[in-house]
């Protein structure tokens, strides 16, 4: 019985170990990317309902974890989603990279603020190298190699 | 650190270059769209010029697999029913690589159209050339053309893709109404979230 209780406790406590998700407005996202410091940032926009997003997220997380300790920060920004679904997915996949939840409904307002040429397709990934004043924008799913090579070359 | 920044930028420039083929400029509002010839779900080849007495065309890039495209289906059918008789028929184009997304295969397109009772042609862009020339990047992605195939509006059907009950702005219907009334389209471009188009491996 004790063993069973322990197993049940272990099972129930797993979601509690998953990260807290930060709810943000679009301005907070823009401010984060505009920080003029020595950190290189990667911002991935995704949703739980988006198939290629969900495919690339585990290796985005792995690559991000592999670069820990460097002046490097990755943020996984969930958009057009429900926070409960995002929490469940992040817990299930045990995502360690910082996950933010965009609390905006007027897509026609916030999409152009991310990038004026972005039409709204998901996923997209933005890169801001340390000290740069603009983001580089990638539309659609990236392969693990594409992501790794971009970051690996930059860390040589 | 400087080296880091330089290499990062160089790597990104390369990345951007590699993707240049996909992120081509495409049509802007005011451009004249080329006609095309694509296979419809009934097996026939179809062009815009095949449509008799059209006053314009509602070209919508859409697909089976994307939840946001699926959420738009009833609205696309309603738009076609309302505006076809006024000379503005819907022409739907499925742009995705069906190898990567078998849900979007030609057979599944036929099945989806039948199940949902599509009232409009549902074409497949097997080479993805039409999609690239339009510059479509997602599903659903709307291009409203006038009878001379001049692009009058690009973007979303309305301001709430996911939840039809939360719609407060009917961008596309407003644009069509303006053209019917012989007026200028007030809002010519809008943005909404959708599923990225799945390009074939180059």
Textual characterization of the structure:
The complex is a heterodimer of chains A (156) and B (202). Chain A has helices at residues 2-17, 26-33, 51-66, 83-92, 107-114, 144-155; strands spanning 22-24, 40-46, 72-78, 98-102, 121-122, 124-128, 136-139. Chain A is α/β, with parallel strands linked by helices and 156 residues long. Chain A has a six-stranded mixed β-sheet, sandwiched between helices. With 202 residues, chain B is an alpha+beta fold. Chain B has a seven-stranded mixed β-sheet. A two-stranded antiparallel sheet of chain B has the order 6-9. Chain B is globular, with a radius of gyration of 18 Å. Chain B starts with a helix and ends in a 6-residue tail after the last strand. Chain A binds chain B through residues 38, 40, 47, 49-52, 71, 79-80, 105-108, 111-112, 118-124, 127, 129-132, 136-141, 146, 149-150, 153-156, and chain B through 1, 3-5, 7-13, 15-16, 19, 22-23, 65, 67-68, 101, 136-138, 141, 155-156, 159-162, 166, 169, 190-199. Strand 5 (121-122) of chain A pairs parallel with strand 9 (194-196) of chain B, so a sheet runs across the interface.
Q: Care to give the gist of this entry?
A:
The complex is a heterodimer of chains A (156) and B (202). Chain A is of the alpha/beta class. Chain A is built from six helices and seven strands.
């Amino acid at each position: 019985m004790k063993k069973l209780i322990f197993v049940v406790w272990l099972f129930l406590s797993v979601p509690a170990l998953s990260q807290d998700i930060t709810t943000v407005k679009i301005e907070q996202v823009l401010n984060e990317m505009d920080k003029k410091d020595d950190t290189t940032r990667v911002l991935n926009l995704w949703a739980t309902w988006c198939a290629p997003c969900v495919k690339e997220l585990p290796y985005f997380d792995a690559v991000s974890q592999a670069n820990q300790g460097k002046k490097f920060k990755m943020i996984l920004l969930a958009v057009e989603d429900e926070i409960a679904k995002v929490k469940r997915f992040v817990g299930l996949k045990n995502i360690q990279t910082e996950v933010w939840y965009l609390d905006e409904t007027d897509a026609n307002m916030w999409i152009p603020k991310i990038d004026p040429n972005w039409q709204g397709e998901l996923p997209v990934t933005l890169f801001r190298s340390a000290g740069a004043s603009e983001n580089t924008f990638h539309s659609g799913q990236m392969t693990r190699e594409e992501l790794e090579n971009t970051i690996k070359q930059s860390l040589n | 650190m400087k080296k880091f920044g330089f290499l990062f930028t160089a790597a990104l420039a390369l990345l951007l270059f590699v993707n240049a083929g996909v992120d081509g400029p495409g049509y802007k509002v005011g451009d004249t769209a080329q006609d095309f010839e694509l296979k419809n779900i009934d097996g026939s080849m179809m062009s815009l010029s095949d449509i008799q007495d059209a006053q314009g065309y509602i070209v919508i890039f859409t697909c089976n697999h994307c939840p946001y495209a699926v959420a738009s289906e009833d609205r696309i059918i309603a738009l076609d029913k309302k505006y076809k008789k006024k000379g503005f028929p819907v022409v739907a184009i499925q742009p995705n690589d069906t190898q990567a997304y078998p849900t979007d295969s030609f057979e599944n397109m036929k099945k989806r159209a039948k199940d949902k009772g599509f009232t409009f042609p549902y074409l497949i862009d097997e080479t993805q050339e039409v999609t690239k020339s339009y510059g479509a990047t997602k599903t659903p992605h709307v291009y409203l053309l006038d009878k001379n195939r001049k692009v009058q509006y690009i973007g979303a059907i309305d301001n709430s893709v996911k939840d039809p009950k939360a719609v407060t702005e009917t961008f596309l219907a407003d644009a069509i109404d303006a053209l019917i009334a012989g007026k200028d389209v007030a809002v010519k471009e809008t943005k909404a979230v959708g599923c990225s188009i799945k390009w074939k491996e180059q």
